[in-house]
Amino acid sequence: MRNSYLFALGLTGLLATPAAAQDTPTRPTDGQGNWLTYDEPPKPPKPSKPTAEQPQTGRLRKTTMGSTYVPLDADIYRLIDRYVILHGPDSLSDPHTSIRPYTRTAVARLAERMLQDSTAGLSRQDRFNIRYLLRDNWHNTQQDSAINQRGKPILGFLYGRPSDLYSVAQPEFSLRVNPVLGLSLGNSDGNKSYSFLNTRGVQVEGTIDERLGFYTFLADNQMAVPLYVQERIERDNAVPHEGFWKPFKNTPGQYDYLSARGYLTYAAGRHVSLQLGHDRNQIGNGYRSLILSDYSAPYLFLKVNTRIWKFHYQNLFAQMVADAPNVDASYDRKYLALHHLSFDIKPNLNVGVFESVVYSGYSSTTDSVLVNGQPVVQPRKRGFELQYLNPIIFYRAIEQGTGSEDNALLGADFKWNIRNRVQLYGQIILDEFVLSQIRSGNGWWANKQGIQLGAKYINVAGIRNFDLQGEFNYIRPYLYQHEDKYRNYQHDAQPLAHPMGANLWELIGIASYQPLPRLNVVAKGFLVKQGLDPAGQNYGSNVLLPYTNRPLDANGNLREYDFRVGDGITSYLFHGDVTATWQAAHNFWLDGKFVYRHRTFEGGAPAPAFTADGGALASIALRWNIAQRLHEF
Q: Bridge partners of 426?
């Protein structure tokens, strides 16, 4: 492990920060926080004396700004989601939980509303969590001065705010700089003596002129993984969640890679915001997403969010990689266009529809020149299909109008919050839908659909800070597959939706409890029935395979019917996970984790390749400004 003066100095300052009291802070009157205001006209600031961080400018401050986003983190988003259920969205319907990541603006407003609600009945844990959200989003809240200022910064400029190693707050410029550190050690289920993770990096974000936001994350990583993860990497030639990688010290099961994410945001108007970046996105309220998840490697995208009246409309245009990122070479490109429209029927009931299309940057054509009497088939550069840039058009019509065979998906989702205690949610996704074939029940291979239903229950049985979540996912065989790597629903050889692919049903149970303000305990259980592929065959579970390689019928033709979920080698997998996390300081976490995996096969079938059981795995971890690395597949 490399020594770093920056990490040592930062860690010393972080741990030297005194623990905060557990009572609710009073609301300051300095008004330094600000955000993009939609629901009321700009108000002039109250006169105040200029300070070093707020010089006298002689003019009114703007009320608009480009907000950055809360980095995707399952633990932090579980915390935010519970308070959206308890307190509801604000007058702007923010946070809009069907679209992730959330803006820091929306999360800051949520935390402030919780403090203003005299009927909230906040527990000590809730007050601690509110303080955390306000500190973590200080540039977007008026509460920053009261709870996120330090009397004497280290060396005069470090940890002026307990949330950041270095920060700047000027009327037209803000900056946050933080180190990133992730260290873990655990036992392994393979021939290695242990598994480990060693991550070091930096995270920088800020705003310019209160309209432009920027964010960048860079980390160097080395890791050794359990055997079941190693076999998944060997099957797909891809490290989960990452792009290019290489072996670490030429040791099986050990990998070396860089993690890089970054984006720019721009507040184009009162109702429109733009984001250009290299990162991940997610659609849906579930633990899994059948539409777009954050499982794959980051990708280049342009995102347009339009929010007006009861509508929230998102357009996403992305350039992706068709190949596995395991060689240092030029990779083939593919493209994604997706739009999602949601409508608030009531403040607590939201429904949405979406459509996406994945298409090739190349097209095949028959050259008129003959070679040895045979026509030559060559890839022809297609590039980005400009017609998909139309933000309000039916992609399926464009696909047909351009004479292409792109991979178009469509579907819907919903969210219903009931009595500020329960949330029901779901998704449905359709690739092919022929009603007569569904009614016939003959298992036509091209009936490719997926369904998700789930529920969240907050403060179960009156026990404060004890929450439950249950979820059911059902995905037919061959959903997300296509004829080639350019049009299947994957990026960098990693699924864009469910990490286990298709041909499965899945039950998920999650229990989270916060017995102490700094202690969180989360238990998760996954029970999955999935049809796996015998050697050389394709029963529709692996997104990377072409559906033109289906099993043959008695006549030697591709089979058309009698495909059911679980066909192939029927596998039952249980994956259990219990994690206890202690927040020693702001965004400084200590984890203790226990994972148990067990897989069986129906009828005593032999285990296919890449299906290691896992057994019992235990690990400890230290995380600083970084999310847990999860392998839940």
A: 414, 453
Residue 539, CA distances (Å) to 323, 479, 535 in order: 22, 11, 11
Q: What phi and psi, each to the nearest 5 degrees, are found at residue 615? A: 70, -145
Sequence-ordered list of residues with C-beta below 8 angstroms from that of 61, at least 6 positions apart, any chain: 34, 45, 171, 210
In the three-class reduction of DSSP (H, G, I as helix; E, B as strand; rest coil), residue 450 is classed as strand
Mark residue 599 as left, alpha or beta (left: phi above 0; alpha: psi -120 to 50; beta: remaining): beta
Return the pLDDT at 581: 98
Give phi and psi for 558, each to the nearest 5.
-60, 130
Residue 372 pLDDT level (bands cut at 50, 70, 90) = low
Phi, psi of 48 (to 5 degrees): -145, 160
- Look at the chain and count its residues: 633
CA atoms within 13 A on the CB side of 223: 27
Confidence of residue 2 (pLDDT cuts 50, 70, 90): very low
> What is the per-residue DSSP string for 315-361?
EEEEEEE-S-S-SSSPPPEEEEEEEEEEEEEETTEEEEEEEEEEEES
CA distance 625 to 5: 17
CA distance 439 to 462: 45
Residue 8 tokens, joined: 């040592």
Biggest distance spanned by C-alpha atoms of the chain: 87
Give the closest residue to 278 by CA, choosing from 294, 262, 265: 262
List the end-to-end C-alpha distance of the chain, in Å, as a whole number: 29
Find how far residue 75's CA is from the centre of its chain: 11
DSSP state for residue 366 in the 8-state scheme: E
pLDDT, one tens digit per residue, over 441-457 is 888 998 999 999 999 99
Measured between alpha carbons, how far is 143 from 571 in angstroms, rounded to an integer? Answer: 52
Give the tokens for residue 275: 């984001």
Q: What is the pLDDT of residue 607?
A: 72
Residue 15 makes CB contacts below 8 A (sequence gap 6+) with 584, 585, 588
The CA-atom distances, in angstroms, between 36 and each of 75, 108, 211, 513 are 26, 12, 8, 34
CA distance 288 to 265: 26
H helical segments located in 89-215: 104-116, 124-136, 144-147
Considering the entire predicted model, what is its pTM? 0.86
Angle between helices 124-136 and 104-116 (to 10 degrees): 140
Strands annotated E in 362-503: 362-371, 374-381, 407-418, 422-432, 448-457, 466-475, 490-491, 494-495
Q: Which of 529, 528, 549, 554 is nearest to 539 (CA)?
A: 549
Region of poorest pLDDT, from 131-135, 214-218, 525-529, 586-590: 131-135
* CA–centroid distance for 398 within its chain: 29
pLDDT digits (tens, 9 = 90+) for 382-432: 667 778 888 777 777 777 666 667 888 999 999 999 999 999 999 999 988
